[in-house]
Design brief:
- The chain is of the alpha+beta class.
- The protein has 2 helices and 8 strands.
- Strands 1-2-3-4-5-6-7-8 form an 8-stranded antiparallel β-barrel.
- A hairpin with a 4-residue loop joins strand 2 and strand 3.
- The radius of gyration is 24 Å and the shape is globular.
- The N terminus is likely disordered.
Length: 184
């Protein structure tokens, strides 16, 4: 009888330990520390980056860059149960090196899977009288954008992106000044 009881106790302990491991694993996988979706179902503030693409959520706006174009959308982007979203905003198709034309009506749609966001911007080009679709593009939460020849534009307000862009432009300006001195 004692041996049978010891066997049952061992089985219970093993089951309890296994159940604890499973619960802990599910908790860790289900709630990552850098989850880009808040408990209320909105995308959190932060930077999403990729090659020639940026998706930056700040307190008052979501700023999107695709190559040399950019646009603004609401800061509060609600994600549905399938990780999908869609919001209206405005977009500039000819933004660099000098903005040409007005901001145009645009729709931003996408899907979030883990720390990856894939999105498309559809712009109603009222100047050219056509629909322009940019994307799909993919970005990763917490990754700095690699913008190539088109820098992230400077927007009003003291955001981290603005400070980085201003410092980069200051460095470029000083480099150009040094290059011009070489020509004298």
């Amino acid at each position: 009888m004692c041996l049978y009881w010891a066997h049952l106790e061992g089985t219970r302990v093993r089951r309890t330990v296994i159940a604890g491991i499973i619960v802990t694993s599910v908790t860790l996988v289900g709630c990552p520390e850098n989850d880009p979706v808040s408990p209320d179902g909105n995308l959190v503030q932060g930077t999403w980056g990729g090659e020639n693409v940026a998706f930056i959520i700040e307190s008052n706006t979501t700023h999107v860059h695709i190559r040399c174009t950019n646009g603004d959308f609401p800061a509060s982007i609600a994600i549905d149960d399938n990780g999908r979203f869609g919001v209206a905003g405005s977009y500039v198709l000819r933004a660099y090196p000098v903005q040409v034309g007005p901001p145009l009506p645009a729709q931003l749609v996408g899907v979030v899977v883990g720390s990856r966001l894939t999105f498309t911007v559809s712009v109603n080009d009222t100047v050219e009288k056509k629909l322009v679709v940019l994307g799909p593009e993919s970005v990763t939460f917490g990754r700095e954008p690699q913008m190539g020849p088109c820098p992230i534009c400077v927007r009003p307000g003291p955001s981290a992106v603005d400070r980085l862009t201003l410092n980069k432009r200051k460095d470029d300006f000083e480099d150009n000044q040094n290059d011009n001195r070489d020509l004298e």
